[in-house]
Amino acid sequence: MNTNHDTPCPLCDAGAETVLWRSPQARVLRVDDAAYAGFCRVVWNAHVAEMTDLAPAERRTLMDLVFGVEEALRRVLAPAKINLASLGNQVPHLHWHVIPRFADDAAFPDAIWAPARRSGAPRSVDWVALETAVRRELEPPRA
C-alpha cells in the first residue's frame, strides 16, 4: 500500500481489519457494525482521494469490485436494498461502503447515518459463506 501522504491514514496504516478478499489493487473488508449486518468496505490500496485520481481502467476495476461485493451480499443475505457510498470526507482515501439494508434495520428507509427510527432487529451473518461468495464474484474463473 502507498503510505506517502502527510497525515496518518487509517486505510493505509490499517491495523486489525478483517480482509475478506485482496488483490494488488484493492481489498474488501468486513465492517463489524451490529446495527448493519454484512456491511463491507472496498478499499483502493493506493492512497488517492477521488475516483478521477484513477486511470479509466482502474475506475472500471474498482467499480467491478464494488458490484461484485454487492452481488455476493444480495445472494447470501437477500437484503431489501444495497446502499453504495463513497464519501471520504473524514478519511480522504478512496473507498466504497457496500451496505445491505433490511426493512427492519434501525434507520430504514433512511441512510444508515440518519437518526434511528426503531431498534434494529438483530441479524447474524455467515461470514464464511459471504467470504466464499465474494471470492466467487471477484476471482477470475479457473481454466
- Structural domains: how many: 1
> What is the subunit organization of this protein?
single chain
* Biggest sheet descriptor: 5 strands, antiparallel
Please identify the top-level CATH class. Answer: Alpha Beta
Mean pLDDT comes to: 91
The radius of gyration over CA amounts to 15 Å
The level of helicity is 10-25%
Structural class: alpha+beta
Give a verbal description of the structure.
The protein is an alpha+beta fold and 143 residues long. The chain has one domain: 2-Layer Sandwich (HIT family, subunit A). The chain is 24% helix and 19% strand. Strand 1 and strand 2 form a beta hairpin. Helix 1 (56-77) packs antiparallel against helix 2 (127-138).
